[in-house]
Specification:
By secondary structure, the protein is an alpha/beta fold. The protein has nine helices and 15 strands.
């Protein structure tokens, strides 16, 4: 091989080495981050959920007399509204019930949506459902609370079905999580565990709460608010169900519904002796009793009597419970709805 060829090879080798060193000195360019595809469905859902604001409480009434659970819900609703920084409002539906809108301000509401018409004199599922759905679709609240009474359970289920949203029944705890969702806690599997439920993709978030579960807020008659009067184009002839007669099964002004009783005394027949009654009569002014024996003892003792057997029809959350029974007798606890 000639000297010229050797020099050419040496030059080529040097060039390759210099090129390799230059490549090593050049900083590596970072790879461009992968662009995730935009989920149009999620964007639309997020925009839709942002349209809903406010905490609403349905004010249940019968003949113009409000259910106390409605005011209890305003207490817990005030905490939710404060956390979400939104208004606390009430829904008042009935005939000549504008005073209940004013009364709701005393328990913390700042606005009341009122539908006042003879069509709503007596509760019927269809007109009340249409009225509540009309208000929700127009004003879009994010949370709606209803008392878990017979009327409230019927109405809440009908409204949630019509709006295709979630409903959690018999909640014992209501809080807001870090994402602003309503955390709805309720007993599950016969009360053995506590389940927390969230409604993430639909609005409003609906919950029912039994009477006496939430504390009653303090009443402040100086508080004022705004009443928004709405009318629903619903004629009596368009409603399928007609009320022919209302039979009041209350025995008098002193009659107490066991579901709302503050004090419950439950005992077998042997417990209703004179020496025992002295203890029970301390709460004589406002108490209900459930006797395990459907006979005369508790009625003769002056109790507002509500006897049952088997699975109770009503569940109660009293402030005080007194159970008196004979050895081996478990009926009083069961019959008291505990």
């Amino acid at each position: 091989m000639s000297r010229r060829s050797d020099r050419n090879l040496l030059h080529a080798g040097r060039t390759e080495i210099l090129d390799e060193l230059a490549k090593q000195k050049e900083p590596e360019k970072p790879e461009a981050p992968a662009v995730e595809p935009i989920d149009e469905a999620q964007v639309k859902l997020a925009a839709k959920l942002k349209e809903y604001k406010g905490v609403w409480v349905f004010v249940e009434q019968s003949d113009g007399v409000p259910a106390e659970v409605s005011w209890e819900l305003l207490g817990v609703g005030a905490g939710l509204a404060k956390t979400r920084n939104v208004e606390l409002c009430t829904i008042v539906i009935g005939n000549n019930v504008s005073n209940l809108g004013q009364e709701s301000f005393a328990y913390g509401a700042t606005k009341a949506y009122l539908i006042d018409s003879p069509t709503f004199t007596n509760y019927r599922t269809e007109p009340y459902q249409k009225a509540v759905c009309y208000l929700i679709n127009k004003y879009k609240p994010e949370i709606v609370l209803v008392g878990a009474t017979g009327l409230g359970r019927d109405l809440a289920g009908a409204v949630a079905t019509e709006l295709a949203t979630g409903l959690t029944a018999d909640c014992t705890g209501l809080t807001i999580d870090e994402k602003g969702l309503l955390m709805q806690t309720r007993p599950a599997f016969g009360g053995n565990i506590m389940a927390t439920i969230k409604t993430e993709r639909t609005r409003p978030q609906m919950s029912t709460v039994r009477p006496h579960v939430m504390p009653m807020p303090l009443r402040d008659s100086t508080c004022k608010g705004q009443i928004v009067t709405e009318s629903l184009p619903l004629a009596e002839k368009d409603i399928l169900v007609k009320v022919l007669e209302v039979i009041d099964d209350r025995k008098g002004a002193g009659d107490v519904d066991i579901a709302g009783a503050d004090v419950i005394v439950s005992g077998a027949a042997a417990c209703w002796e004179k020496k025992t009654l002295k203890f029970y009569r301390r709460w004589r002014t406002n108490w209900a009793a459930s006797s395990a024996v459907p006979g005369r003892p508790s009625r003769q003792a002056g109790c507002r009597w509500n006897a049952r057997s088997g699975k109770p029809e009503k569940r109660s959350v009293p402030r005080f419970i007194c159970l008196r029974h004979q050895r081996g007798d478990s009926a009083p606890r069961r019959d008291a709805g505990l």
